[in-house]
Q: What sequence folds into this?
């Protein structure tokens, strides 16, 4: 996630506050994977499948890791996506993850974790959601 420009990640974060205009902008302006990831984190199975089919397996795994699926975190780590493992932990409010991100000047990922948590804390979740 740290390869994206800050303004793109800020737009991604705003999608969790219900900004569907930015969601659509991401989709139509070269960042369909971030649009799909936002939808996926918000429970859209079609977006999850799109990520898998279009070469963004790491984002599908990230969604599952955020949903506390240990096999997804293992897959991410095994495939070299250590920052995404830490980001998922930050989304699950693990202070050591936020500290790790801060030490590496990845405050934008802390911001995104906060936006995702804000969204999740105000939603009903189906714990029978997809399996990674």
A:
């Amino acid at each position: 996630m740290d390869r994206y420009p800050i303004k793109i990640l800020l737009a991604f974060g705003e999608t969790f506050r219900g900004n569907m205009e930015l969601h659509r902008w991401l989709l139509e302006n070269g960042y369909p994977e971030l649009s799909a990831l936002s939808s996926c984190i918000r429970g859209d199975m079609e977006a999850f499948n799109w990520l898998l089919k279009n070469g963004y397996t790491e984002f599908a795994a990230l969604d599952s890791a955020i949903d506390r699926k240990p096999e997804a975190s293992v897959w991410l780590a095994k495939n070299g996506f250590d920052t995404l493992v830490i980001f998922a932990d930050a989304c699950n409010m693990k202070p050591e993850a936020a500290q790790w991100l801060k030490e590496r000047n990845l405050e934008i990922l802390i911001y995104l974790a906060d936006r995702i948590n804000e969204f999740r804390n105000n939603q009903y979740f189906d714990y029978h959601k997809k399996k990674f």
Observations:
- Residues 107-121 form the longest helix (15 residues).
- The chain has a mean pLDDT of 93.
- Residues 6-121 form one domain.
- The CA atoms of residues 43 and 129 lie 8 Å apart.
